[in-house]
UniProtKB/TrEMBL annotation:
This is Methionine aminopeptidase. GO terms for biological process: proteolysis. Binds 2 divalent metal cations per subunit. Has a high-affinity and a low affinity metal-binding site. The true nature of the physiological cofactor is under debate. The enzyme is active with cobalt, zinc, manganese or divalent iron ions. Most likely, methionine aminopeptidases function as mononuclear Fe(2+)-metalloproteases under physiological conditions, and the catalytically relevant metal-binding site has been assigned to the histidine-containing high-affinity site. Monomer. Substrate binds at H83, H182. CDD domains: MetAP1. Belongs to the peptidase M24A family. Methionine aminopeptidase type 1 subfamily. Keywords: Aminopeptidase, Hydrolase, Metal-binding, Protease. A divalent metal cation 1 binds at D100, D111, E239. Signal peptide: none annotated. The gene is map.
Amino acid sequence: MIEILSPVELRRARRTGALVADILQTLTENVTVGTNLLEVDAWTRRMIDAAGAESCYVDYAPSFGRGPFGHVICTSVNDAVLHGLPHDYALADGDLLTLDLAVSLDGVVADSAVSLLVGTARPAGSEALIEATRRALDAGIAVAGPGVALGDVSHAIGTVLSAAGYPVNTQFGGHGVGTTMHQDPHVPNTGRPGRGYRLRPGLLLALEPWVMADTDELTTDDDGWTLRSATGCLTAHSEHTIAITDDGAEILTLPSVDAP
């Protein structure tokens, strides 16, 4: 199902997007060497509850996972790139951490992800990997707008990732959001320009470039959720929820002035 939001729903989506961004900003500012992933999950739960919102992950049980997920945020470390299940692990200096959060507030969902380096160590290639996903996300947002083919968005993302030298996996990518977390259309992280669904005002898309340094193959942990690079290489992931408007695209998952 492809859902087109009304102007009233779009106003709600802006509030949800700001909440997601504020939570991620707060986590980014407080995560440090020694922080346990279960602490991150607990902090996130408190902020979601304080806002009167709901995590989209707790009861999430898709066919590809071993659900329900049971936690409020995805925490992926180093070679883990997607759906990282929070567990008893204390972050080390130089860990590459991805935080992925989807929240529902007033019946509308927003979804965002950030990758960051913990502490002061900077493993070889880690900063370039994160920066490539951020640039790819910016490129996809820049071309999105009414009447634009979905393939143009995917092509813009994929062009940046491929030019940076990274293989691109198309099993998981961006997606529509609205009153639920995962909706059509699927947004692959590479594609052919001019192809696919034409974007319409009121459509919400979660664009999420993610890459693995030297492979496009994934493996799944025994927890049934955490997806890792098949070679054990570093990974990174950046994501924003955007709204297609009459004249372009609006990023909804930007922090407000005062984070929670």
